Amino acid sequence: MQSSEETEKFLPKKQLTKCIKNIAEDLGLTEGEFKEYSEKRLSIKKEHYISVYPKVPDITVTGDKTYITNLKVLLAQNLYIGNKMVKLNDKLSTLLKIKEPPIGWYVSEKYDGIRAIWDGEKFISRGQKVFTYVPDYFIELMPPGVALDGEIWISRNNFKEVSRISTLKVGSSKSQKQIDYIWKGTSDNNSVKYMVYDLPNSNQPFETRMKLLEQIINDRKQVWNNILENVDECPIKFTKQTQIENMAELVNTYKELTSKGAEGVMLRAPNSPYETKRSKYLLKYKIKDDAEAIVRGYTMGTGKYKGLLGSLDCELILDQKPSRVMFNIGTGFTDKDRTEYNNSKSSLYIPIGSIVSFSYMELSQDSVPRHPVYRGIRDDFMIKQNTELESKENELLNQTEKDYIKTIISSFTILIKNEETQKETNWQFKRKAYKQVIDILSNSSEKIDSVQKTLKVLRAGGAKLDGEEAYFTKNGEYKSKTLQKISEIIRTGVLTKAIEIQDDPKVKSITELTTIPEIGPSKAEKLYKDGITTIAELIDAFKKDSKLLNSKQSIGLKYHNDLEKRIPRSEMDSWNEFFTVMLKFTIERMKTKPEGVKMQLVGSYRRKAQDSGDIDILLSSKDPEQGKKLMTNFIKELLKTDNLDTSLVFSSGTTKFMGLGKIEDYYRHIDIFYYSEKEYPFALLFSTGSGQFNIEMRTDAVKKGYSLSEKELVYKDNTKVTTEEYKSDIGKDYPTEEKDIFYFLGLVYIEPENRQSGAVLQRK
User: Fold this and answer.
1) Which of 176, 233, 289, 375 is the most interior residue, by most CB within 10 Å?
2) What top-level class would CATH report for the domain 687-754?
3) What are the tens digits of pLDDT across the range 670-681?
4) Which H, E and C letters describe 442-493, residue by residue?
């Protein structure tokens, strides 16, 4: 295109005016705008370089970084939302006669670079940051006083190299010459280019904007040839737009470009305006999407990545703000990335608190990216400042000690009730898995604030969760469905499925009814089908029909409120004294006195807890036959007292008694077990707890080749431990007290009140 001055030399004035008018209209400009552009289209004068977009910029300076905080650009939507294509059913699309995509739309390559606005004077990233340094030759190449929208790009699959371009600055780490060299590269394959695809200041339709844009790029190519005659490729490039008519053309174009390494394709609507928002007139079509996240920590690798970075612990950024959605990025790293991630002197350094770009397949229902892949650091990205309220909320969250153990236990309890209610395929296995989590965590003193810590506690408790770290590193999520649920709770504070289940009337009903002793899930489900949904309704129904429950269930219903109450330690002391006196009385009344009689209240009472849930008693003697007689007589004498009643017995035999008793204000559940002299130390150890301590001690025994139960210690093949082996280690034919079991297994003896998670210690 010739300037107006050059044209004037060859054309009469009238013809010249008409020519200028036609050219201006074709480019979407007024005659004044065309003349103004013509005067500086080949200019490299500094006075011509002025900022024109935004018209009145809001400037924020943070350290050595400058941001234009009111920069707004045309943003793309996805062509598909789920399985459905975007639909244009608005008035503006009808008015502009824009057909549904991709009919008549324009397709171009989606560049894997940094979105950048040229404001007529300087470059600004989509993250609103002004580029710290751009070589003089590149600035001179740009059109002065004209705003452009495009991508700073190097080549396909090379995002890591370009991602930090905007923050490179001349200083101690890099000289101006070194930075210029990075921009220029050694060939077109590794040099920095500006791929231009729109004019943000223009209010013209898309096709008109493209005509003007192509003219601008051609003009600047002429400037480039004057600046660097020996360089073949001009780094400012017009993005070719190809109009297509059907889906087949779109798919073919996508396949062709991606097969060559392109990230995807962009679709632009014909006759569409430049909207400074996320617009339905700019669509992206790609298998993966991109996003940013804040690095919150590191997870070390396992297997071949042992000692190297396994994954980045990240918080997703949504709407330029931290979202509190936590996830991990474990793929996309080179071996060098994994080695130098924490080396502050390396260009591959990924500091905690930095912002990284990643690609992913889709977001889950709770906004967690699926299969995230690391792309590079985003130094140009600016996090929006929180409102005063949000700042206070974040401050409060940071001050709060996060421990998700109660939420996990309550959520998994709901899941168990659901499995028992629905009884779908493999429900018993699921219930068993959920119960294992509850049992382990209920007896753990560890603070559960991360999935990694939960995994450690569950494994120590005997849960088989092999290969989870490696799977997570590769896929960005855990293999175990149980860990996936725990991960959701720790990320979001809730388990969505548990909330949904909790609102299920059937589950709510069965959960309430099964709190009654002797009423299990099957009986509760039958009651529910009969229209009985609450304990109150069951009480009324039982009054009308006594056959509704058996004798044991009727006892459970009658004393349900009492049995729900905890037993204070002072009352437990009274029960201990009562049973001690009654045992002594029973022995005195027996003709043949049993030898070696032992009795102990166990459970949380023996661990010196301040309250208990029920009363568990162990009884033992030297001779098993005499012991069974002792058990029978002991129960008879107890039932003669005012504290126990034959009508409140669930079951009674020579080795086990279950029933109710009252010594103060409320009825309590009482279990009495008889064990032989050889079984007693193992039963005492098992019944004392805590459950987590028992699990860890059993796990330790398994590692040493044994199987530890509430009755004995055997080898894993069920072979008995011989008398000679016991004598060699503990000086006895068999264990007669708890300490003997600890010492035989090579463990330090732990007092009952200290038996918590992590208390199992090896003897030196």
Assistant:
1) 375
2) alpha beta
3) 999 999 999 999
4) HCCCCCCCCHHHHHHHHHHCCCCCCCHHHHHHHHCCCCCHHHHHHHHHHHHC
